[in-house]
């Protein structure tokens, strides 16, 4: 078995060199599946995964084919979930993929940078929602509202928009973005407090519908607060939003010998910034999960009445979870606004909230690697696979009506993800230990 | 300004009544399902939307064949109610029942499923309309018989025939439902299941069948409401169910969730409030805040009730049991 896996992976490495592209990548994905599921010794598996990382990177660098990114994500999943791989291998390969492979691929095809940044932003938000839904068991259907509050907090002051109602020198210089990441934490946490205070007193279902309403209210406000005073600039949105200056970063990269041009410099910067944020969010998540609050959240999730009898104050504990999740979303909103340099109400619909929920559900409620995998899977599905499939349908079946375009049916896809997961695998793809026990016990 | 407000007040109340009846009918679907399953059936707003789309299609295809507008509407109502009810049964059978059979205690699981179903139905309808007409923003065809109008109280209220029909049909449906729930065997069974599913099943009631019937009744009401909605407000698309759905749920909470007369009352009250604010907010603020904010009003009401009277207007306080 070990020999076959090795042969397959070597074969893929050769293919990646000789015939880079979609077909060889498909072969590589097959080899990856075999490597992950065949019975291999831990050392053989580590070696094979390293080989695959090299091959996928090579293929990405030569062809820019986005299937390779799926391969890299797959390797990351294998590294986090497969047993008995030495920790240093996991860490080394993981870092190599995140810090070397993806940027190399990004220089070959800037769309991959874009994908990586989007995955990162969504992953950080999914991790935030994971605290609310996964740990504390509170169903938040308006999560994008906090994202919007964060994004608008920076967009308004980081553009000329603030001139409409304030005296002063706007836009604020780009460095202020870092300050506004802090401010966004406060504003979104306060928003969360205001919403949570009435909604969290009641049974969980009400929270779902109140947050659903909140999401809608924030969108309506963003759409209509262009009069009497122009605060949000209405449906047109706000542009251009300032980005932080990156001269220091450019110099550093030049020292390291990384060639940057006018588009890739900001892409690499935001990619690394988002990675850093995910690192921080994961750290906070892990620490919270093992803290007094984390245990209280799980207790509330599993049995509210028992938790209360044990002396856990329900409302403050739930509020804390709700506000933590909101704050994560707000910070990512600021980065989102700066990265896009454009903010409009369209990015913050119910669909966005449900997309993030879908990521948490797909990966597994309460599971940290799960939330990241869910974010990667749904983002790639949405931005890449559906679009490619769309193109395929359009060229192969030109007689189909133009409205039947798979790329426009994200809702169908996300809906199916939610329903099928709930019916067949409610604990998610990478289940958290305690959650799995809870789901199985029923 | 006061004069202006008073002069249009009767009309505002009448329009609010029309809107309120739509909400009341949809709210019943939420409240009945909540009564038996303790589930917020998010997909109910899509059942309503399916009714509206069926209404548009019936009018599109049968208007030339059926010269009598009232007969045409009757066909649309029957078909809309039937298709919406059938969809509701299918949703229950294939999405909710598997969860129930597995006996999941986690409360999030059915809620998330309901959201997913709602999204699937929206895009399925869009797909069907896309294949059929290559267009999913639909317009209800106008039929002469239903477009007539007359004045009441010396011109204080302008009444369209279709609004009157809407009110009459909804009232008939609400009376019929009250009779069904209070006086028939099926109604007794539904109430028994709502009160205690396990005990009801010991008394020889098949809960699955009753739950299925509950979805049928709620779904058909939603479908009929959808047809009437399409007739009254004319523009329909696959995403049109969302806002009325959330508001109808608000109405159900306002009246006391699980409480059937409460849902009717809640719908009527919410219709009045929303129409009231929608009309008067622009006048009172000199146009600075437009009608768009009427949706915000509904959510503020929801939050206020949850704060002040979570059991709703007619509901009773239920202590959560261990």
UniProtKB/TrEMBL annotation, chain A:
It is found in: Cell membrane. Pfam families: BPD_transp_2. CDD domains: TM_PBP1_LivM_like. It comes from the Bacteria. The keyword Lipid metabolism does not apply. Coiled coil: none annotated. GO terms for cellular component: plasma membrane. This is Branched-chain amino acid transport system permease protein.
Automatic annotation (TrEMBL), chain B:
InterPro entries: ABC_transp_permease (IPR001851), BCAA_transport_permease (IPR052157). GO terms for molecular function: L-isoleucine transmembrane transporter activity; L-leucine transmembrane transporter activity; L-phenylalanine transmembrane transporter activity; L-valine transmembrane transporter activity. The chain crosses the membrane at residues 12-35, 69-96, 108-132, 152-181, 210-233, 296-318. GO terms for biological process: D-alanine transmembrane transport; L-alanine transport; L-isoleucine import across plasma membrane. It is found in: Cell membrane. One of its GO terms (cellular component) is plasma membrane. It comes from the Bacteria. Keywords: Amino-acid transport, Cell inner membrane, Cell membrane, Membrane, Transmembrane, Transmembrane helix, Transport. It is a multi-pass membrane protein. It holds the Pfam family BPD_transp_2. The keyword Metal-binding does not apply. Belongs to the binding-protein-dependent transport system permease family. LivHM subfamily. This is Branched-chain amino acid transport system permease protein. The lineage of its organism: Bacteria, Thermotogati, Deinococcota, Deinococci, Thermales.
């Amino acid at each position: 078995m070990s020999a076959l896996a090795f042969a397959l992976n070597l074969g893929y490495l050769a293919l990646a060199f000789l015939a880079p592209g979609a077909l060889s990548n498909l072969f590589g994905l097959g080899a990856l599946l075999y490597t992950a599921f065949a019975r291999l010794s831990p050392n053989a598996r580590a070696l094979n995964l390293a080989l695959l990382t090299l091959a996928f990177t090579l293929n990405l660098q030569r062809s820019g084919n986005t299937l390779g990114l799926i391969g890299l994500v797959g390797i990351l999943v294998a590294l986090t979930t497969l047993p008995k791989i030495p920790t240093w291998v996991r860490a080394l390969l993981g870092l190599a993929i995140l810090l070397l492979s993806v940027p190399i691929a990004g220089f070959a095809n800037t769309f991959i940078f874009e994908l990586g940044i989007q995955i990162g932003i969504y992953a950080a938000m999914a991790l935030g929602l994971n605290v609310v839904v996964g740990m504390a068991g509170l169903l938040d259907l308006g999560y994008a509202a906090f994202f919007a509050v964060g994004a608008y907090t920076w967009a308004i002051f980081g553009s000329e928009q603030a001139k409409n109602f304030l005296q002063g020198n706007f836009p604020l210089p780009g460095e202020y973005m870092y300050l506004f990441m802090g401010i966004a934490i406060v504003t979104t946490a306060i928003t969360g407090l205001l919403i949570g205070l009435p909604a969290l007193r009641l049974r969980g279902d009400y929270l779902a519908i109140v947050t659903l309403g909140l999401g809608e209210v924030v969108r309506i406000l963003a759409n209509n607060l262009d009069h009497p005073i122009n605060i949000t600039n209405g449906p047109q949105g706000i542009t251009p939003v300032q980005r932080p200056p990156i001269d220091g970063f450019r110099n550093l990269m030049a020292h390291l010998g990384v060639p940057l041009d006018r588009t890739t410099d900001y892409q690499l910067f935001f990619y690394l910034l988002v990675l850093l944020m995910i690192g921080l969010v994961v750290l906070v998540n892990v620490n919270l999960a093992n803290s007094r609050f984390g245990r209280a959240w799980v207790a509330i999730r599993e049995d509210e009445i028992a938790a209360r009898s044990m002396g856990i104050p329900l409302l403050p504990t739930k509020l804390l979870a709700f506000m933590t999740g909101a704050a994560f979303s707000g910070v990512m909103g600021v980065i989102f606004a700066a990265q896009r340099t454009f903010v409009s109400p369209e990015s913050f619909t119910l669909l966005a909230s449900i997309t993030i929920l879908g990521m948490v559900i797909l990966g597994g409620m309460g599971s940290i690697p799960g939330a990241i995998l869910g974010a990667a899977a749904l983002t790639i599905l949405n931005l890449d696979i559906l679009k490619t499939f769309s193109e395929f349908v359009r060229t192969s079946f030109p007689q189909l009506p133009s409205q039947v375009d798979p790329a426009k049916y994200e809702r169908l896809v996300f809906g199916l993800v939610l329903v099928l997961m709930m019916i067949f695998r409610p604990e998610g793809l990478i289940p958290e230990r305690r959650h799995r026990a809870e789901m199985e016990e029923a | 300004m006061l004069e202006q407000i008073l002069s249009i007040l009767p009309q505002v109340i009448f329009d609010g009544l029309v809107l309120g009846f739509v909400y009341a009918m949809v709210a019943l679907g939420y409240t009945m399902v909540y009564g038996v399953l303790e589930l917020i059936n998010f997909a109910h707003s899509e059942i309503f939307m399916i009714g509206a789309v069926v209404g548009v299609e019936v009018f599109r295809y049968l208007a030339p064949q059926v010269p009598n507008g009232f007969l045409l509407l009757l066909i649309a109502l029957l078909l809309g109610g039937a298709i919406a009810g059938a969809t509701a049964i299918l949703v229950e059978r294939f999405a909710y029942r598997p969860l129930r059979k597995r006996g999941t205690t986690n409360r999030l699981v059915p809620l998330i499923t309901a959201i997913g179903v709602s999204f699937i139905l929206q895009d399925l309808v869009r797909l069907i309309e896309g294949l059929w007409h290559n267009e999913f923003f639909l317009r209800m065809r106008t039929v002469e018989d239903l477009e007539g109008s007359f004045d009441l109280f010396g011109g204080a209220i302008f009444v369209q025939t279709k609004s009157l029909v809407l009110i009459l049909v909804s009232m008939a449906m609400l009376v019929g439902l009250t009779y069904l729930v209070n006086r028939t065997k099926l109604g007794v069974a539904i109430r028994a299941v709502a009160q205690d599913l396990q005990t009801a099943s010991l008394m020889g009631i098949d809960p699955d069948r009753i739950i299925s019937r509950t979805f049928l009744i709620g779904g058909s009401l939603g479908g009929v409401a959808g047809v009437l909605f399409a007739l009254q407000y004319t523009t329909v698309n696959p995403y049109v169910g969302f806002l009325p759905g959330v508001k109808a749920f608000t109405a159900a909470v306002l009246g006391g969730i699980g409480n059937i007369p409460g849902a009717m009352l809640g719908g009527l009250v919410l219709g009045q409030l929303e129409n009231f604010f929608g009309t008067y907010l622009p006048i009172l603020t000199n146009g600075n805040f437009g009608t768009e904010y009427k949706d915000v009003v509904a959510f503020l009401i929801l939050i206020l009730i949850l704060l002040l009277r979570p059991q709703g207007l007619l509901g009773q306080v239920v202590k959560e049991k261990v």
